[in-house]
From TrEMBL:
A Pfam cross-reference name: CTP_transf_like
Domain (Cytidyltransferase-like) ranges: 39-165
PANTHER family the UniProt entry points to: BIFUNCTIONAL PROTEIN HLDE, FAD SYNTHASE
Protein name per its UniProtKB record: D-glycero-beta-D-manno-heptose 1-phosphate adenylyltransferase
Organism: Vitreoscilla filiformis
Keywords carried by this UniProt record: ATP-binding, Carbohydrate metabolism, Nucleotide-binding, Nucleotidyltransferase, Transferase
Biological classification of the source: Bacteria, Pseudomonadati, Pseudomonadota, Betaproteobacteria, Neisseriales
Principal EC category: transferase
Enzyme Commission (EC) number: 2.7.7.70
SUPFAM superfamilies reported for this sequence: Nucleotidylyl transferase
Catalytic activity: D-glycero-beta-D-manno-heptose 1-phosphate + ATP + H(+) = ADP-D-glycero-beta-D-manno-heptose + diphosphate
BP-aspect Gene Ontology terms: carbohydrate metabolic process
InterPro entries: Archaeal_FAD_synthase, Cyt_trans-like, RfaE_dom_II, Rossmann-like_a/b/a_fold
Presence of the UniProt keyword rRNA-binding in the record: no
């Protein structure tokens, strides 16, 4: 059977670029953001299955999911490796914005997203299960206005660092070592 396809697509597949907001633009839109607003952050250098599981789960918790990514300068300061990030911030943002479960993407240039969280006052803050939420300043902050903070299930075996090592070693997905 031939699939019928119409252009422009009626709905459900907005131009990813329209989901990317510079910090100033987001500030202007902040009162229009749907609530409950779920907020998460990270580098998202090479998108993998673990990321998609957790972003999908995050979106189920509220009416909209905002992902704040580290700028390239901020990502470099995290010390993940001299070659990181491999993908520039505009590209990392565009890939995330292409996911249906992501409603908006923005950037932060600081070492943590605390100042941005303070501005946007999300209802729910999430990270993946590799974080102990009780130790984070982000958790203390969102709870200060009655928000929630939680870690979503970690999908073991998936990480950007692991992928980079596999590529550097020339190992395929079939190689268990
Ligand atoms: N395997 C996974 N399962 C669920 N969540 C994950 C997983 N890996 C990362 N996350 C979450 O995705 C977000 C972005 O993480 P990050 O970009 O650091 O991924 P990473 O694969 O751990 O990368 P790196 O190896 O460069 O640290 C974080 O909130 C993190 O908790
Ligand atoms: O992709 P990562 O390394 O999971 O993202 C980091 O998260 C940190 C977290 O919010 C604890 O503070 C953050 O500080 C850091 O800038 C990265 O976004």
């Amino acid at each position: 059977m031939t699939a019928s396809f119409s252009f422009p697509r009626p709905d459900g597949c907005p131009d990813p670029q329209t989901k990317i907001f510079e910090r100033d633009a987001l500030r202007r839109w902040r009162n229009q953001l749907p609530r409950p607003l779920v907020f998460t952050n990270g580098v998202f250098d090479l998108l993998h299955t673990g990321h998609v599981h957790y972003l999908y789960a995050a979106r189920q918790l509220g009416a909209a999911l905002l992902v704040a990514i580290n700028t390239d300068a901020s990502a470099r300061r995290l010390g993940k490796g001299p070659e990181r990030p491999l993908n520039r911030q505009a590209d990392r943002a565009y890939v995330l914005a292409g996911l249906a479960c992501v409603d908006a993407v923005t950037f932060f240039d600081e070492d943590t997203p605390v100042a941005l969280i303070d501005e946007l006052r999300p209802d729910i803050y999430v990270k993946g299960g590799d974080y102990d939420m009780e130790t984070l300043e982000e958790t203390r902050l969102v709870r200060s206005w009655g928000g929630h903070s939680l870690a979503l299930p970690f999908q073991s075996g998936y990480s950007t660092t692991q992928l980079v090592r596999r590529i550097e070693a020339g190992r395929s997905a079939a190689d268990p070592s």
